[in-house]
Amino acid sequence: MTFEEKLDISDFKKSVENFDKSLSKMLAIETNFLSENHTEDEELCFDYRFARSGMIKVFEMIVESVWKIMQRWIKINSDNKIHEKPKRELFRTACQCGLINDPVIWWGFYEARNKTAHVYHEEIAEEVYALSKQFQEQLRDFAKNLEERI
Length: 150
Fold this sequence. Notes:
Blueprint: H1 10-35, H2 42-77, H3 87-96, H4 103-114, H5 122-148
Helix pairs in contact: 1-2, 1-5, 2-3, 2-4, 2-5, 3-4, 4-5
């Protein structure tokens, strides 16, 4: 008897939609905050930082979901020992399988995800938030490539 695991990506697709909605709302908040030059208003600065922290958390969760679903797809379709290998190998293999285009960029997202525990540092928070904006296109491409391969 053989067992063939089927990858269900329905929850993952909802996570991608939630990421898109969260980023869209955050960009509107950021645009309003910067365009009105509210950078001196303490309460509005707090509101911006609070919203940014929420966006960073959403980024953290989706990156976590991505590498897990990436790992499951590779385990099913390419390398059943991928879970024993380092994350860098996961991203290299995902690129070789056509799931992502650039493993170096993805490694950067994963490293940023690891920094989310330190977002109380303003520079780190801004760095991770900036990467979350760059992540959107890569995430959409990954989701499309994944769906094509299921």
